[in-house]
């Protein structure tokens, strides 16, 4: 099987969960799952020169990920206070002014971008102008055939109409969930909801796919022809849902690039996300 090169660009954080800290950050979770499912997954992020940064490196290195694109700078390593509701749904309090807010598009990263088969980014890492510019430069360095995946991952108030529309304009694939869809529809002033809002996004931004997850209910893949696949979410014992969406996107994209059809890639995504929900945190602790 071929090993597509897939980059996850943006935040790297320690998720401070009620039962301890876990590595996280959507792009890192994404890269981890791409790698685990048979792609070459590359996290592109930054940590500080502090103890948490060193520990993040050690923990990620133990997973076998290539950390050659994780930068180090003088800011503190990212941290997120995570509280969980009764059914394991997280709420995030994301510390600002941290290492991944100063991401740079260095020569090595641009060179990797020029060879990448897919790149994935979100809205949160674009909260700082520096990282927003770096992400734009990395996207610009990709080949036309590189699949551009915007996993919107709206967190707290860290998004804007400008960031969302600019990223949608770059994307081939959009991933969003049931809370994010109405938010995006209202940001863009479409006045539409549900499947109509998705169809409008596909049309307005010439998207190849919209990957839509509705938590414990179901998920859908949409294309220019409309609904392509719909799968009910399996019933499982949920530890927490942290990182479930990131692993969903990773499995869908990896499978597609490995040549699987949309429906099979969607099934793989559903299975992978279900697995992530049964463990605490986004990246399982090494055994
Ligand atoms: O990336 C922001 C937050 O979202 C997650 O990636 C889960 O999707 C967490 O690991 C992180 O704290």
UniProtKB/TrEMBL annotation:
Alphabetical keyword list: Kinase, Transferase
Q: Where is the Carbohydrate kinase PfkB domain?
A: 22-284
Name the chain's protein.
Answer: Fructokinase
Q: Which family does it belong to?
A: Belongs to the carbohydrate kinase PfkB family.
Q: Does the UniProt entry include the keyword Nuclease?
A: no
Enumerate the PANTHER family for this protein: CARBOHYDRATE KINASE PFKB DOMAIN-CONTAINING PROTEIN, HEXOKINASE FAMILY MEMBER
Q: Which organism is it from?
A: Alistipes timonensis JC136
The taxonomy runs: Bacteria, Pseudomonadati, Bacteroidota, Bacteroidia, Bacteroidales
Organism superkingdom: Bacteria
